[in-house]
Amino acid sequence: MAAMTRHRLNTRLVVAALLAVCLSLGACGSSGDDVGGGGAAEAWPMRVDLPGLLGYGSVDLRPGELQRLFVEFVGLEVRGLADTGRLVMLQLDETTHGGTQSFAVPITSSDEVTASLDAPGSGFERLDAQRVRITVDAESELGALISMARAGLGGGRPSPFAMMGALFGNSGPITLTVHAEVTSNHLILAPAFEGVSVTRSLLDRAPGLTEASNGTDSLVMVWDVERIGRAYHDQIQAARTELRNLVSAAPAAGFGAMMMQMQRGGQDAGPLGDIPRISSDILDAFLKMFDAIDVSALRIEALRGPVNLADVANDGFDDMNDLIVSPLRVKAEVPDEGTMLAAMRPAPYVPEAHWTLGADGDAWASAAAAWCAPLAIVKHGKGTIADQAVADLAEILSGWDGAMTARVGDDDAYAIFTTDPDTGFDVEALVAWFEPIVDRIGSADKPTLQSVGDDRWQLVTTDGTVAATLGTSGTAALWIVAGEANSMPLDASDAILRAPRPADGPFQRFADAWDDGDLALEFFRSPGSFELEAAWTR
Predict the structure, then answer these.
(1) By the 8 A CB rule, do 314 and 69 touch?
(2) pLDDT confidence band for 423 (50 / 70 / 90)
(3) pTM here?
(4) Which residue in 213, 268, 305, 234 sits closest to 22, CA to CA?
């Protein structure tokens, strides 16, 4: 695989943006009980029963890195900071805590830290025993971030233009009032006293957050996805409305209207490319399907990471290798039953394959069909007809018996699905099921699936190019090959058809060369959890 394009971003703003994004977004991770009472707890609990806590992170710092970050990024010099240790970051519900972030900074001398907060000209202004005011230059990296955050997260709907105006239109100093508490081990900075309290409680309940790891667990980020969804419900709904208006036939005011006006102003393609006019009911169906991917909590652990944040903040990213952290673990808290993920089973090992997948075919078919129920409702309306359509789709999908292998190379891209020898796989029925739904999308440029006989179909673009060929090999396999093909790759088909089904192991394997190295991904499923382990070696 070709090496990735190199990038160089000579700005410390990138580091700040990365930290801000890490503390404001969420996605997948492993089962963990709430840490509310006594008893043993894992070092990185998935759920912590503290009011308004949406997520947290912990970074293992290299010698001297913390002081450099304070000076070079924040612009403040604080004596008594620890030379090494873990920086803990919290994502908070603003309605509960008066702000969105809180930090626990490791220290070695509470007296020196306190003296720094009170020293004239330090950048801190003591307001009372608990509060300090920090003055930040609006043109600094931190000042730019604060200005954009205020414009994007303040009252009303976030506006990209307001954020850009805040970025380039401010020149005066920005003042922040924060609550600061100096303990024997940490300087806690939070938007209000409640944030200080919840930070202190988190440190007590999850001591692993502050334990030095000697480089074995350099970065941990955890998100309580359920709480984030509740805390940002209005913003999420507003974003969905904007998305719906952007891609449907009724553009909304503001940014969406501008983009759609440019898109539909007589040009062949707008700034976002040739976007099909998706009807609002189709979009709503897709959004409901996304909602059905039920992740309750997420954890990311980056181990032995080569990135030195202070060096990157000062010098920028030389190339993409500066961003690579290996190995990486992702764990998600997920439902035990009734989902496609719950139907996953250990994948067979197929030599030379880039990608293999394993599942309980019948359970996966039922879960996948249920997941597509919103599309069936778009097609038939609510009621028994839609219910029957879901049952029909489950029967069609049950032709897959749960094993798949694929390659993703430029010259030999293919996928082979082993099928149930009693039923085979009915491609025509699947196409007939989805065809009326695809027609609702409304794009004149969508490809079509054309039968070419001998149990083969071609995916043909509007200019006549054959993008892929689909075929069945009796009742043994369904295959998809990039471009034109008369049959599936024989070596690959023999390998997947003869591969034994293991009793345990990852349900999905991916391995390929990437950026002058080897990338390996393995996905595991256990009751209540999903786990990904990623390793990149050179």
Answers:
(1) no
(2) confident
(3) 0.72
(4) 305
